[in-house]
Amino acid sequence: MRPPSASRGDGACLGEAAQRTPSLLRAWRVLACEPRQAWSIATAWIGGKRLRARQRLAAAIGIDHRLALPPRAIPNGEDAIPADGAILVVGAERLVPGAVARLRHAFASDPSLQALYGDGLVQDGVGGPVHPRLPPAFDPDLLLAVDYIGALVLRRGALPEPVPTHPVEAALRVLETHGAAAIGHLPGLLTVRPGDCDAPTDAVAARLAAVRAHLDRTGAADTTVWPGADGVLDVAHPLRETPLVTVIVPTRDRLDLLKPCLESLRAKTAWPSLEILVIDNGSREEATLAYLRDLERGGRGRVVPYPGPFNFAAMNNEAAKQARGRLLVFMNNDVEAFRPDWLVAMARHALRPGVGAVGAKLLDGEGRIQHGGIVLGTGGLVTHSHRHFPGDAPGYLSALRAAHGVSAVTAACLMVEASKFQAVGGFDAERFAVDFNDVDLCLRLNAEGHRTMVVPAAILHHREAASRRWTAEASARHSREVAALKERWGPLLAQDPHYHPRFDPGLSTHARLSRTEAADLSVRRAG
Q1: How far apart are CA 99 and CA 97, in angstroms?
Q2: What is the CA 383 to chain-centroid distance, rounded?
Q3: Which helix (H) or strand (E) holds 208?
Q4: Would you say 413 and 332 are in contact if contact means Cβ atoms under 8 Å apart?
Q5: Rg of the chain on CA atoms, in Å
Q6: Which of 35, 123, 326, 461 might form a disulfide with 336, Cβ 3.0–4.6 angstroms?
Q7: Taking a C-beta distance cutoff of 8 angstroms, is the pair 115, 171 a contact?
Q8: Confidence class of residue 45 from pLDDT cuts 50, 70 and 90?
Q9: How many CA atoms lie within 13 Å of 188's alpha carbon, on the beta-carbon side?
Q10: 445 exposed, middle or buried (CB, 10 Å; 0-12, 13-18, 19+)?
């Protein structure tokens, strides 16, 4: 049976297909094999630290979406579209009571706004469960693959007649005419799609035609697009050249990690010109030193000596200065490639003029999602998107299938053009020696107009922090870097524009709804 996202034709997974909840019996089996984890969870719960206990349980047994609401969640009544033509609704969804007043106020408050979309409720068939559609701020890349808008509300005169009848086509027209900043997300419930509202049989074809026409109109005729799984449109930007790529891998001994990492790069990377730089941060073990000598003698890589205290940012900055590649890939020594197309998938975006840092989908040792982008303001400060979800999960709004904008990505595997990296000064080695240097880099690139993107088609394994050791000194340094991140990026940390405030901030992202309504319902825009 196809998931409802496929039958609707919008490609937007709302959690319907991810109900693979571990049973209580399975949870007990997992914890029985991990008594230390079980004890840690139990002591946290008994000690009143319920949030910590829930997070540890999710890490131990995995997590999935729990977003379905009962049919009674759909409000009664409907707001009539005003007869004065001040606003025009594009799409089949109906406005909820009070929506028109909110829309009028938003447009009146900001004359530059030409189009708005809000949150929605989507029912799976008559009498079926109801799923919330909680979109991000406007993301043109995600819109090419997934209709996360549902219904688009236009200001009078935003588009010339005849106005498109499909919300994706209308949004793309507004994007072309007025720019991305003219389209806003208005948080709060605006529209509903009841179970008796059938999607057109040609919904995917209509989206495909709209996207194809948009690409042709905007000088991107060589970008290919085709229908993918469950209504998601697969988009491939052209790769007009394959420049030299430098992969930078820091290490201090840990040959058990470094060797599989480097060997996977050579065996599982389909790219004609690859340079590997290994930063040696004071390795002492003879086996590691012999391996590094053999690496250079065999012409399989270069070693950049960087003795002294571990400063991830500084050592990567130094290696970047010595790199010959047009594209830089910063990679942890506990990352392994296993699909040859990972670098091609990332380079298709990193070489685009408006894109800065590009991240990959990383899987942990259990085959679950370890990284699907970085979300600000959750998990206490920042967290990885969809962490602990099944490795093959589509992700909320199909975010684990479609390339899309995010606030930041992890430097465990981060690609960026060398010129863009140097233009913003590289990593900040003084304030973020070890932690958050990747977040800070991405946010500075974003501020310069270079969007950060995550590309789920690039998939690698990551045994996170396998080479890290926590000490009292490391803990104190981490606290200083937390304070520095809050000082520099405090307003952004309050609410990530790429993440909806209605999700529970205490668990893996996109997993549960918050029990409280978002306090700020003002219009959100990306960038």
Answers
A1: 6
A2: 11
A3: helix 203-217
A4: yes
A5: 24
A6: 461
A7: yes
A8: very low
A9: 19
A10: buried
How far is the C-alpha of 407 from the C-alpha of 492, rounded, in Å?
A: 9
Q: Which two tokens stand for residue 392?
A: 């093959």
- Please, what is the end-to-end C-alpha distance for the chain in angstroms? 39
Hey, CA dihedral for 291, 293, 299, 303, is it positive or negative? positive
Q: What is the DSSP letter of 497?
A: T
What pTM value is reported for the model?
A: 0.91
CB-based contact 90:96 (threshold 8 Å): no
pLDDT digits (tens, 9 = 90+) for 389-422: 899 999 999 999 999 999 999 999 999 999 999 9
DSSP 107-166: HHH-TT--EEEEEEEEESSTT--EEEE---S--HHHHHH----SSEEEETTSSPSSPPSS
In the chain, count H helices and then E strands: 15, 20
The gap from C-alpha 188 to its chain's centroid, in whole angstroms, comes to 22
Contact 313, 302 (CB under 8 A): no
Report how far apart, in Å, the C-alpha atoms of 278 and of each of 302, 320, 323, 405, 440 are. 6, 11, 11, 30, 23
Model confidence over 217-269: pLDDT tens digits? 999 999 999 999 999 999 999 999 999 999 999 999 999 999 999 999 999 99
**DSSP reduced 3-state for 234:** strand
Q: Which two tokens stand for residue 144?
A: 């090419």
Would you call 116 exposed, middle or buried from its count of C-beta atoms within 10 A (0-12, 13-18, 19+)?
buried
Both tokens of 79, joined, read: 């707001």
Measured on CA atoms in the order 324, 328, 330, 333, is the torsion positive or negative? negative
* 82: its two tokens: 């005003």
For residues 53 and 6, is the Cβ–Cβ distance under 8 A? no
Residue pointed to by tokens 């693959």: 145
213-222 — which CB contacts under 8 Å span 24+ positions? 213/169, 214/144, 214/169, 214/172, 214/173, 214/175, 214/176, 217/176, 218/176
